[in-house]
Automatic annotation (TrEMBL):
InterPro entries: Transgly_assoc (IPR007341)
Superkingdom to which the source organism belongs: Bacteria
Primary localization class, coarse: membrane
Pfam families per the UniProt record, alphabetical: Transgly_assoc (PF04226)
Compartments, as annotated in UniProt: Cell membrane
Organism: Devosia marina
Record protein name field: GlsB/YeaQ/YmgE family stress response membrane protein
Length: 83
């Protein structure tokens, strides 16, 4: 799976931003590495899930949106598992 026109370096930066935004929105603490991982994994998972629904995100704005949504979902799952 590619990053839809977003390079690896940009994917890390955008993923970090998406993870940071999601952690702020969901009031979840975490370091820079955790935010980057949340954003990138969240973007990949959200892109796959939305792709199954026929919705596609392209470019860095789409990757940021998908990363934010995916990271929020991962944070919710993490909270549910921790309880």
């Amino acid at each position: 799976m590619g990053f839809d026109g977003v390079g690896w370096i940009a994917a890390i930066i955008i993923g970090g931003l998406a993870g940071w935004l999601a952690s702020r929105f969901m009031n979840a603490g975490g370091g820079v590495l955790k935010n980057v991982i949340l954003g990138i994994v969240g973007a990949i998972l959200a892109s796959l899930a939305f792709g199954l629904l026929g919705i596609s995100f392209g470019g860095w704005i789409g990757y940021l949106i998908a990363g934010f949504i995916g990271a929020c979902i991962i944070i919710l799952i993490g909270r549910a598992v921790a309880k």
